[in-house]
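worker-03 picked up job from queue 'complexes'. Input manifest follows; three sequence lines, order preserved.
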Amino acid sequence: MTTHPQMYEGIFNKSTIRFLTVLIVVALAVPLLNALDSSNPLHVSTYTMTLMGKYLCYALLAVAVDLVWGYLGILSLGHAAFFALGGYAMGMYLMRQIGDRGVYGDPLLPDFMVFLNWQELPWFWYGFDQFWFAALMIVLVPGLLAFVFGWLAFRSRVTGVYLSIITQALTYALLLAFFRNEMGFGGNNGLTDFKDILGFDLQSDATRMALYVASAIALGLGYIACRMIVTSRLGRVAVAIRDAEARTRFIGYKVENVKLFIFVVSAVLAGVAGALYVPQVGIINPSEFSPLNSIELVVWVALGGRATLYGAVVGAVAVNYAKTYLTAAMPEIWLFSLGAMFVLVTLFLPKGVMGILQRERPDNDDSDGNNLDNGNDLDNCGVKA
Amino acid sequence: MRLIEEFQHRDKVFDFMMPNTSPALDVGQGYLLYLEDISVSFDGFKAINKLNLYINEGELRCIIGPNGAGKTTMMDIITGKTRPDEGSAWFGQKINLLEMSEPEIAQAGIGRKFQKPTVFEQQTVFANLELAMTGPKGVFTTLMAKLSSSQLDHIDHVLGQIGLKQQRNLLAGALSHGQKQWLEIGMLLMQNPKLLLVDEPVAGMTHQEMDRTGELLTSLAGEHTVILVEHDMDFVRSLANQVTVLHQGSVLAEGTMDQVQSDDKVVQVYLGE
Amino acid sequence: MCTPGLMAPRGAILFPFSGSGGLQMLLRVLWVSLLLGFGLATSIARADSFEQGLEQLKSKDFSHIEQGIAAIASSGNANTELVLNLLLNGELYRLKKTDELVVVQGKQDKKLIIVNLFDDSGASAQTVSKRKIKKVRINNNIRASLKAALASLKLSAAEPEQRRQAVNQLIGKLTPELYQTLSQRLDVESDSSVQELIAVALAVTDLNSADSDSAVQQTAVATLSDSLQPAARNALAQFVETTDNAILKSQASKGLRSIDEKRKWAGHAETLFFGLSLGSVLVLAAIGLAITFGVMGVINMAHGELIMLGAYTTYVVQLLMPDNIALSILVSIPAAFLVSAFVGILIERGVIRFLYGRPLETLLATFGISLILQQAVRSIFSPLNRSVATPEFMSGVIEINPVLSLTLNRLYIIAFCLIVFALLFMLLRYTRLGIEVRAVAQNRAMARAMGVRSEWVDAMTFGLGSGIAGVAGVALSQLTNVGPNLGQAYIIDSFMVVVFGGVGNLWGTLVAGLSLGVANKIMEPWAGAVLAKILVLVFIILFIQKRPRGLFPQKGRSAEG
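worker-03 finished. Artifact:
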């Protein structure tokens, strides 16, 4: 063997290029179709575009979950917390943008503070009138929480279901905390009645279009970032940790640090997704922290297929489309079908929908390669895609 | 104030400045590993009882003993998986194993092969070896790591050594039991440790596989120090000159295989009263 | 309210010879005749003061009315209470034409039907227009003296509770006559708490009256210092503010401090009690989980919904037997156990058994089941909360002293929790099933080799854990409303308790549940309920990081793995 065959997939493997192509097409097509005259049969309403923008945010969130669950084996039941924190950071900026146009017309205090008879702005609301500061916080707050939490949890080797449960407790604690009026985040009403972002009217079609495109770009960049991680040696270390944590320690990797890094990256991605989500739906309230949300997004990833990244996107879009449709058409059915989805996917689709599709293409079949003789002609079976 | 003064000593090397990886081992006394008065108990059961063990550099030492003698627990202590209740464990003269975590111990130069072969089944044979490769293993270096051609050659060399060249791109999970054992030994070779702990490497192997494993291990000794835990007496006889017998958590006898086999105490333990 | 259970020892103190029935009877007779004699004498002497008083009520002058009330109150007439109550409620009228006292009995068209006072037969009924009658007016002064008069009447009521209320109303408002009545009453009072209250009432008067000498006042301060009645503390506090006597002042403030000290301890005891009752709820909710999670290693996210099913079972059983609430609760316990155990076994056989060894998948699948169960309940019973009635024997309080009383339903919950725990503990320790469960938990392959039907054991264990969740639901239905979200509220708490206590350790679960409950209640006063809960959660998160295996970790080689 004189030349070294390609050992690992690059960042831009077939599936990534396919995914990015679809994403770019969708990102460009939808705004164009939206710009068409509303009488045109191909016209996409702004409502639909915003809805799709929302799905893109969910998809980014799902990718973040897949990064930690699929590749690192950490089943986080608290990722909605990072999403919501990013959302709150954005919401605080949007609240400050309202200025004196609120119901009470206070130039400084948001309406809910005036309503609570607060006299001055709490310290943690300072700086949020600046977009750059808010943008920094969108990354910093979820990242910092993930860092502190992960540092404590991974260092003391909390793993498996224990970790899942304490992540759930984390988001539950935040849920309770944000419900309190005293916290200064609008209590159970949350933050809403936003007017504009960076000076642009949030209700206008152009702003909505820009937010949609921004979500698509964020998803694309987030996806590429995740691909960079999972195709690097660090990604292989992560998979090693997922499959045999103790062994990884014995060959000299500080498992805690690897976990912490990937967990923080994932939390930041979730925070960004939340920040883009809030201006599109126009509200952020504590229910975003509810443990149900976190666990629901896990099923998106499970349905799409773990450790594939694009499976997470497919799962997020599919489940949310079904949710939008069912909660409107047959609200009673939605929880039944969501519950059934959990059961059926875990029982019958351990690799998700994408796993099934993959299995049907023999050239990509690397999952059960118990044929010892064909070692040479497999060229892309490095990290499982 | 004292703190500041301390910082002013130019020649002082602070702990945090010390390189974490592969420190120069001081084996001035000739011993590579000291275990002294180690005791550990689980729920009142003394798994290890006042164990003393000294391993010379370059030695291939076999540890034998009946089930429950504390062989695996001893390995756990050396690699940092289990903390002893008392005693001291030194690697060379300067490295206190009891103060280090598993990855720190691994980076300091102790490699371990488990009783049950544990390889990364979802990754290729090549990736398994790459992951084990010696070198800095921090998060960011790993993130940015690129394989140099000399590293590639090294991996290929080891692949040849363990006879898995044909399987380099196969998932490790698809290997046979014996191949997994070799892959694990190969990973130890990649790690290039000073001290190798090998736990029952030939369990469940055919005779040919056993011979091949024997060759591998002998080729390791000299360059590396090897501690081998094994049940198979023939295999042990074919390899080691020094044998230590463990019984109820402490050393029962030490010497060559013949000496040990003629020892009354050992015979008693193995054959019963 | 006072329970018979606690009355008995008090009676025993007052009647030291209560063991011998005859003597007790004799004492009772003596006491009753004493009362009768006292009443008879006064009523003869003041036979006509009642009539005079009634006449005076017809006056427009408040001072006349007041005199009239005094006369009536001291008359001893059987109708005294009736008249005073009518007055107090503003239901006594004067018919202007005949200057007779009347009461309104009803309405006809726009006119009123009135009858003469004391006319039970209704013979004097007549219909008059509103303007023809005039209400006997009272002012605040009169109202106060009316209340005092009524209170002193109630002093001889049969129920100790009524006597207690009466004395309570009199404290600080004692006229010399009432003082007399009370001190006589003190000698014959049988109920110790009423006795104490009377002593306090007298002492308050002694303390504040201008003509008491300092010796009397000193005794009064001592009496008040010993009492935990709120009135006693108030009187002392007021006295400290106003008195000029330095010695008495220091004595009183010392008494005040000792009262505050006792009240503080009573407060602590109450917090502990609330904490233990909350903890019992947590233990009940968590103990089923301790079996499925701790013994079997199965994460059952539908555990909360199994609790909910138990609560709904209670609701349904109560609908089926609405006439016998007490019995329905007793029936509910086995019913809820069976319903939840049945659903649990279905879950285990249908889903979980395919997922052994894959805890994270189990978590997801059972979460899906929890969603289905929630929605099913929502569809069947509506999303609204249902309330379950509390049986008679569980409502009420036990009053330990004036500042510490324990509610019975919480007491029952604590007892119930301990009983369930003990039964479960014995079941796991001493029965064949228990041994098999533990065998399978420790080494499945070995247990199978020994002939244990591990599949059957799995199903039974899961059924047992689920059934206990159902029983917890019965207990919860007595504390909160029953709704589809009932289970969700407890699932995280339950997991926290199990993990905090150490997985696979029933004692750990008990200690963890109780201590978390107490911790929660201790923090509540200064942190608020929500913040206390958050703090407890944060504490557990930090704790698990420090000791991942909980309070009471399982030791041994297997645990090291």
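worker-03 released lock.
The longest helix of chain C spans residues 246-295.
Chain C touches chain B through four residues (CB under 8 Å).
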